[in-house]
Amino acid sequence: xxxxxxxxxxxxxxxxxxxxxxxxxxxxxxxxxxxxxxxxxxxxxxxxxxxxxxxxxxxxxxxxxxxxxxxxxxxxxxxxxxxxxxxxxx
Length: 90
Description:
Layout: E1 6-8, E2 16-21, E3 26-31, H1 35-52, E4 58-64, H2 69-84
Parallel strand pairs: 3-4
Antiparallel strand pairs: 1-2, 2-4
C-alpha cells in the first residue's frame, strides 16, 4: 500500500499529533512526557491500529500530550486514511 505524508491531531493537552509517511516496516518514533510509564502502550496502540488498517510499511512520528487510547486510535486512523486515500468508514 502506497503512502503519502499525512498529519492528524493537535498539540493540545489530552491529544496526540500523528505524522505518517512512507517507510520500511512499521517504525514509531514517540515524543511524550509520559513515555517512561506509557510509551510501550502508546506504541502498541499505534502499531495495532495501523496493522488493523492494512498498513505494514510506514514511518510514524507521534507527539503525545496525554492522549487516551481511544484518541490515539482515532488520530492514527485519520492519518492513515489521509495517507492512503482508503476510506475505512464506508
